[in-house]
Write a structure and sequence with these properties.
The protein is mainly β. The chain is built from five helices and 33 strands. The longest helix is centred in the first third of the chain and has 22 residues, at 2-23. It is globular.
């Protein structure tokens, strides 16, 4: 009796223990190959259990083969990573009890191979990389004609395609930065632990006509005090002569936990613009590339954020981004009095913090993103300081002013090399998408922007981009909430493997935020009246080599209503011409 009971219990324990191991374990193996199907040795393969959050890793051998044994059963994401090939991630993998699963992974190149000779540099798209540090850049130059343009200057870097408030003459011109900003950059990525890397990027734009750093603010200050008929091109923008006027940041990147960076960085709206604009932000053919209102969430200076941290994470087909800008700079000296002086204005602190979020994804050949941005104390510089020969507007002359009230007595700060700014608190929501169908790539997007007078005012002497300061400031420019709506659509057609043809159309509309609402031809339009701006472009781009391409195309733009007012207030000073036609031909070299 005892023997039979003992044998029964022992048999039961044996039978229970044997399948228990099979129920909780599975094996995973496979081969990792590159785009040519060659094996990839020393690649890191990671199996991440979505049910437990536990990850296991293995290195491929000289034949590119890996093995991960006795993995707990469950749902997995399997990824492979190797420098020069980036990361390939496979989702939706279910391991069941006792399974010997085979998952082969073919990786794609994330960046071209480093150059090994001058001939290879000239004939391929290899990179100038040494010990993980890459030098890159572009030179873009062309010839154009504009129906209503202005003389060029050594600081303007965006060509002349868009309708300009002060444009008055048809002219041939050297047109820089048509498809891409001319400039230089250096970036690096160095792994310090498996799956963890230190990264950095420093890049700057250069005016190819003069060799000077791209400087939008200088196009304003060199025209200060001149009569309007003597202006050269004046623009506003985030590039204001900084040594690294594009981006300057560093951070940490993880294959599983995303990328965190800090420094001067492109806004989430700018990232979305470059991704979903059919022209990819080319100045000669794209309104949202040339004018940063869309990318900056209502203000072109905010297309890049100083003192900002950015986080990016990709999980399968979904990606997420978040960004925060810390307040920096000087708030100036503010007074609400109509008879203010340097002695009775109150020093202000800067409250120009900002934040934004991005959520997007890919499904087959379809991609979409939703972006929200908020920016406090956004500064818009519209015109040079007016001189005695210009239209009489005392609040925008070479006299310090706050909310159109000129200073009483001596200027608080000199007006030499300073700018006049309109300050608002801005919000913007972007929805954008693209879809690839055969040889066609279809693009579309929309942004809703609302602007209000700032919660915290700025005063004379407040900081602006690139170390410039405000000698005149307006904190109550808006009679009521200003609403901008920006939209775009376009298509890129691959004529063959080397030639693309792109058509794009852009629009911007403004509400009537004037109080009282007396906007008409008879009453006279002001900048606070409803208005519209539209631009259409068509161009072809042919790649002669991996590095050099040539392009030819045209753009037409026009403006109406309140958006056609060159200088605000009064009944306003209209654009000299409300349209512009600009054909352009040129070439671009990238490395």
């Amino acid at each position: 009796m005892f023997n039979r009971s003992f044998l029964a219990v022992a048999s039961l324990l044996f039978l229970c223990s044997f399948p228990a191991g099979a129920q909780v374990a599975a094996n995973l193996s496979g081969t990792v190959t590159d785009p040519t199907s060659a094996s990839v040795p020393s690649a890191t393969v990671t199996a991440n259990n979505l049910d437990t959050g536990i990850a296991r890793t293995a290195l491929t051998n000289q034949s590119g083969r890996y093995e991960l044994l006795k993995l707990p059963i469950g749902h997995y994401v399997v990824s492979a990573r190797k420098d020069g090939l980036g990361q390939r991630q496979l989702t939706g993998i279910l391991l069941i009890a006792g399974q010997d699963a085979t998952i082969d992974i073919q990786m794609q190149r994330s960046t071209p191979d480093p150059c090994t000779s001058g001939h290879e540099f000239a004939t391929t798209d290899c990179t100038l990389t040494w010990h993980g540090i890459t030098l890159y850049g572009a030179y873009d130059i062309g010839l154009g004609w504009v129906s209503h343009g202005l003389p060029e200057n050594g600081y303007n870097y965006e060509g002349a395609s868009l309708v300009n408030r002060n444009g008055y003459q048809h002219r041939f011109l050297v047109a820089p930065n048509n498809l891409q900003q001319t400039g230089l950059g250096i970036r690096g990525k160095e792994e310090f632990l498996p799956g963890w890397s230190v990264i950095f990027n420093a890049s700057t734009g250069i005016n190819p006509q003069s060799g000077l750093l791209a400087n939008a603010s200088a196009t304003q200050t060199i025209n200060n005090g001149l009569p309007r008929s003597s202006y050269s091109y004046t623009i506003d923008g985030a590039r204001a002569g900084q040594p690294f006027n594009d981006e300057f940041y560093g951070g940490i990147s993880s294959t599983n936990f995303g990328t965190l960076t800090g420094g001067r960085q492109r806004s989430l709206g700018t990232d979305a613009m470059l991704l979903y604009d059919p022209v990819a932000g080319g100045y000669a053919f794209s309104y949202i590339g040339y004018n940063g209102t869309m990318a900056g969430g209502g203000d072109t200076e905010n297309s890049r954020w100083d003192s900002a941290v950015k986080y990016r994470l990709t999980y399968g087909p979904v990606h997420f981004g978040a960004m925060y800008k810390f307040a920096d700079g000087n708030g100036g000296c503010f007074s609400a009095s109509a008879t203010w002086t340097a002695a009775n204005c109150t020093p202000e602190s800067a409250h120009n913090n900002a934040y934004g979020f991005d959520l997007g994804g890919d499904h087959g050949k379809f991609s979409a993103d939703l972006v929200y941005q908020h920016y406090n104390q956004a500064i818009s510089v519209l015109n040079p300081l007016l001189g005695p020969q210009s239209v009489t507007q005392s609040y925008q002359s070479a006299t310090n002013s706050i909310n159109t009230n000129p200073i009483t007595g001596v200027n608080l700060i000199p007006t030499t090399n300073t700018v006049y700014g309109i300050v608002t608190d801005n919000n913007g929501v972007i929805v954008a998408a693209k879809y690839t169908w055969d040889r066609f790539k279809l693009f579309g997007g929309y942004e809703y922007i609302w602007l209000n007078n700032p919660h915290d005012p700025l005063g004379v002497g407040a900081s602006d981009q690139g170390g410039y300061i405000l000698s005149g400031v307006e904190d109550n420019n808006l009679d009521s909430e200003r609403i901008l709506q920006v939209w775009w659509t376009g298509v890129k057609y691959a004529y063959d493997s080397k030639t693309d043809i792109t058509f794009a159309w852009y629009g911007q509309q403004q509400n009537d935020f004037r109080v009282p609402k007396t906007c008409s031809i008879e009453a006279g339009f002001r900048s606070s009246c409803a208005g519209a701006l539209e631009e259409g472009s068509l161009y072809t781009d042919h790649h002669f080599t991996k590095r050099f391409d040539g392009f030819a195309g045209l753009a037409y733009s026009f403006v109406t209503g309140g958006l056609a007012i060159a200088i605000p207030h009064g009944p306003g000073v209209p654009y000299l011409h409300n349209n512009n036609f600009a054909p352009t031909v040129g070439g671009r070299f990238v490395f």
